[in-house]
Design brief:
Number of strands of chain A: 8
Shape of chain B: globular
Structural class of chain B: mainly alpha
Order of helices and strands of chain B: HHHHHHHHHHHEEHH
Radius of gyration of chain B: 21 Å
Structural class of chain A: mainly alpha
Order of helices and strands of chain A: HHHHHEEHHHHEEHEHEHHHEEH
Largest sheet of chain B: 2 strands, antiparallel
Largest interface: A-B, 73 and 64 residues
Largest sheet of chain A: 2 strands, antiparallel
Strand content of chain B: under 5%
Strand order of the largest sheet of chain B: 1-2
Helix content of chain A: 55-70%
Distance between the termini of chain B: 53 Å
Oligomer: heterodimer
Strand order of the largest sheet of chain A: 1-2
Organism (chain B): Haloferax mediterranei (strain ATCC 33500 / DSM 1411 / JCM 8866 / NBRC 14739 / NCIMB 2177 / R-4) (Halobacterium mediterranei)
Number of strands of chain B: 2
CATH topology of chain B: Formate dehydrogenase/DMSO reductase fold
Protein name (chain B): Cytochrome D Ubiquinol oxidase subunit II
Strand content of chain A: 5-15%
Number of helices of chain A: 15
Number of helices of chain B: 13
Subcellular location (chain B): Cell membrane
Radius of gyration of chain A: 24 Å
InterPro entries (chain B): Cyt-d_oxidase_su2 (IPR003317)
Distance between the termini of chain A: 62 Å
GO biological process, one term (chain B): aerobic electron transport chain
């Protein structure tokens, strides 16, 4: 049997890592769906009806799986982290309850109208329902991140002793909820979601274009559909990918200022130093470099003063406090360090990919570059992967604290929880969530393979170009 | 630091906010049991249909609604966490495995109809049809066990009153499902489904009587024999009578109208018997467990602004999809 603390942490990690996929899909798809609905109502072009209907199917299934996995997370605070819930409930429960009432209700009720009601409601109400669903998904993120950002940079509370327990009492709601970390997290998360979905869309479209050899003159319905999808996704990619890098850079500075221990773990800096290099392309040369990275010893191209420069916003001489200086033990440095690098590497790759595709568009070869299409197909899930490793940096980097500087994770676990119970549910979740992921993948693949729904009576599959006819010059 | 003055020390307008929030938490639980209750009931009745079209009609009947209905459970968890964090933490961690049983049932119930529609071959649909039934029956059963254990302060995994109340909640959801399908279906399907109404009601009443007998004899401290609990029992009996009569007269909207009365009478009975305790097992009262005045005032304002909005969304949703399911209408 595992220790209940370890088992609870693993369980929460597993359930969050799986759950986050589905909100990313809904939050990222929301603006696209609003746009498709708007164009569908305002133009006669059937491609927008196809776009709306096709991506709504994927939204709906993501929402369902997101709901069932999300309820689990809400309950886990009570079941596995009861000490945390008792101590921090006064600050932490409010945003969760507000999320349910303000955001989730809006999303779930109007989703019914949006998915089932196209023939039953007016265009105006249909448009309202699209916007309401989108607004609901984004407002959910607002309240979840209000809660989470408070755990990163807690403010506006005092510690009171109630009977035998320390309780966190809210004294300044504005300070607590208008938290310094919140805007950073929200912008980074929302842009990541839109970016991830744009990559996914581009990947799916590129797959069809590449597989079927759709060329520019091809006028059949599904060919138009996939070309349109690719172009829209590419436009969004061109905006979101560079923005994410610029924003991430500034976000890193904020982390350095407010959570220096996390920043040191991201850079694997153990001894306080100035003029610290940035190892963007660090290569592990031994097993130890993977399990216990120390920036200075890694083989890599270190940008002299780079980490100092990033931390301070332009001063390569700036001092970075090493992990040895902090009173609490360091977070698992290897996980944080490598996750951070994977996220940054993925981010740069997205920019490169966007520019490459834009260049091909400009030379009129967007539908002819098979290598580009393969790159898109290979990158279709990388956005979600980047979100995952980004969250791992955020959450693992905050350890050993569950509330930074206030409450340690090990002290937040339910006191009565036995190793047996925690291990049992952990094992159960491994099975259930593996099954959920498998089913979700299976369903999404079916929807994608089926292609766009036909409108005006033409079936897209009947007129598909036989595969093998490539659009290459 | 901002000074919040009297807002941080006095309850809003001098209202009894502790008691209001205790009531609100149970009201939200009641909304969940009423709305998702008929979804569960439709899920249970799904087991009695083997005709493909009829099964599609049942799924189409709840299709646009169940997502929104289930959110009431999320709001229940959130409201309990926000107003009574110590109860939320104690209750959920004490009933550790039971909570995960509820979650497992809800996952199965939520997933099954979506999956059912993905492929139209027999093996696949048989499997997901069964999952839908199992999830729809076990979720209200475990929720009933949870309610009984909460009220009676039972910490063990299984108990006789837990099982009895669990079965009562299952019967109540079938009562609700029959009422709902009475409105949403027509013809042979309607006739067949409606037949389960009196049976489910008889089971519900019998299980309620057993539970009340148990409470009167073994838990006199809870005070079942008092005006308010007795009034709730009378309300239950009168509504049950109304349900049976209207069902026989084929006035299905009226029959369905008795369902919220039955559900809220049940939930109110649990709340009234529990009060002034908020978690009887550990002797935590409502006043012990409530958060401090400042966040309580903020949450009260938030709830007062947001709940009317929520009701307006449900108004739009239910009026958009009012009326019976037309033939050929399917789930997606």
């Amino acid at each position: 049997m595992l220790d209940p603390v370890i088992a609870s942490r693993l369980q929460f990690a597993l359930t969050t890592i799986v759950h986050i996929i589905f909100p990313v899909m809904s939050m990222g798809l929301a603006p696209f769906l609003i746009y498709f609905t708007w164009k569908d109502i305002r133009t006669d072009d059937p491609v927008y009806e196809q776009l709306r209907r096709f991506w709504t199917k994927i939204f709906a299934i993501s929402f369902v799986v997101g709901t069932v996995t999300g309820i689990v997370l809400e309950f886990e605070f009570g079941t596995n982290f009861a000490a945390f819930s008792t101590a921090a409930g006064e600050l932490f429960g409010g945003p969760l309850a507000t999320e349910g009432m303000m955001a989730f209700m809006l999303e779930a009720t109007f989703l019914g109208v949006f998915v089932f009601g196209r023939e039953k409601v007016s265009d105006a109400l249909y448009m309202v329902s699209a916007v309401a669903v989108g607004l609901g998904t984004w407002l959910s993120a607002v309240w979840i991140l209000v809660a989470n950002s408070w755990m990163q940079t807690p403010r506006g509370f005092e510690l009171v002793r109630e009977s035998d327990q320390l309780v966190i009492s809210l004294v300044d709601p504005i300070a607590a909820y208008a938290n310094p970390r919140f805007p950073w997290m929200f912008v980074h998360m929302q842009n990541a979601a839109v970016l991830s979905v744009a990559l996914f869309m581009a990947g799916v479209a590129a797959y069809h274009i590449w597989q079927r050899g759709i060329d520019a003159e091809d006028n059949q319905q599904s060919a138009r559909f996939w070309r349109k999808t690719l172009k829209i996704a590419l436009v969004v990619l061109l905006v979101t990918a560079p923005f994410q890098a610029i924003h991430g850079d500034a976000y890193g500075r904020h982390v350095y200022e407010t959570q220096p221990q996390k920043f040191a773990a991201m850079e694997a800096v153990w001894e306080t130093d100035s003029y610290v290099p940035e190892y963007l392309f660090a290569v592990p040369t031994s097993l130890e470099h993977i399990t216990d990275p120390r920036a200075k010893e890694l083989l890599g191209i270190g940008i002299p003063g780079g980490a100092s420069w990033l931390a301070s916003g332009g001063n390569p001489q700036a001092e970075i406090t090493g992990l040895n200086e902090f009173e609490t033990e360091a977070p698992p440095v290897a996980i944080v360090f490598w996750s951070f690098r994977l996220m940054v590497a993925a981010g740069f790759w997205f920019i490169l990919l966007a520019f490459w595709a834009a260049y091909r568009w400009w030379t009129d070869e967007l539908y002819d570059d098979d290598l580009l299409h393969k790159a898109f197909v290979g990158s279709s899930l990388l956005g979600i992967f980047a979100v995952e490793v980004g969250w791992i940096v955020t959450e693992v980097g905050r350890q050993p604290w569950v509330i930074q500087g206030v409450l340690k994770t090990q002290d937040g676990v339910s006191p009565g929880l036995t190793g047996f119970e925690a291990t049992l549910t952990l094992v159960g979740f491994v099975f259930v969530y593996t099954g959920l992921l498998g089913l979700y993948t299976y369903v999404i693949r079916r929807i994608i393979r089926e292609g766009p729904p036909s409108v005006d009576g033409t079936s897209p599959t009947e007129t598909a170009t036989p595969s093998g006819v490539s659009g290459d010059d | 630091m901002t000074d919040y003055g009297a807002f941080a020390t006095d309850p809003l307008f001098g209202l009894p906010l502790e008691e209001l929030w205790f009531g609100l938490v149970f009201f939200i639980l009641g909304m969940f049991l009423f709305l998702d209750g008929f979804d569960f009931g439709v899920g249970a009745l799904f087991a009695t249909r083997d005709d493909e079209d009829e099964r599609e009609t049942l799924l189409a009947a709840i299709g646009p609604f169940w997502d929104g209905n289930e959110v009431w459970l999320v709001v229940f968890g959130g409201a309990l966490f926000a107003a009574f964090p110590a109860v939320y933490a104690n209750l959920f961690s004490r009933h550790y495995l039971l909570m995960f049983a509820i979650l497992g049932a809800l996952i199965l119930r939520g997933l099954a109809p979506e999956m059912y529609e993905q492929r139209h071959d027999e093996a696949w649909q048989t499997w997901w049809g069964r999952s839908f039934v199992v999830g729809s029956v076990s979720a209200p059963f475990f929720i009933g066990v949870f309610a009984a254990h909460w009220l009676l302060g039972i910490s063990s995994l299984v108990s006789l009153p837990g099982v009895v109340v669990g079965l009562a909640v299952v019967a109540l959801t079938i009562v609700a499902g029959v009422g709902f399908l009475g409105m949403k279906t027509r013809g042979a399907l309607q006739r067949d489904v409606v037949e389960y109404g009196p049976k489910a009601m008889a089971a519900y009443l019998a299980l309620v009587v057993v539970t009340l007998g148990y409470l009167v004899v073994l838990r006199p401290d809870l005070g079942v024999i008092a005006p308010i609990p007795l009034a709730l029992v009378v309300i239950t009996l009168v509504s049950a009578g109304g349900y049976l009569v209207t069902l026989r007269e084929e006035r299905y909207t009226l029959a369905f109208g008795t369902v919220p009365v039955l559900v809220f009478a049940f939930v109110a009975l649990v709340a009234v018997l529990m009060f002034p305790m908020a978690d009887p097992a550990v002797g935590l009262t409502v006043s012990d467990a409530i958060i401090s005045i400042l966040p309580l005032n903020i949450m009260s304002i938030a709830a007062a602004l947001l709940l009317p909005l929520v009701f307006s969304y449900f108004g739009i949703l239910y009026s958009t999809f009012r009326g019976p399911i037309e033939t050929g209408e399917s789930y997606s």
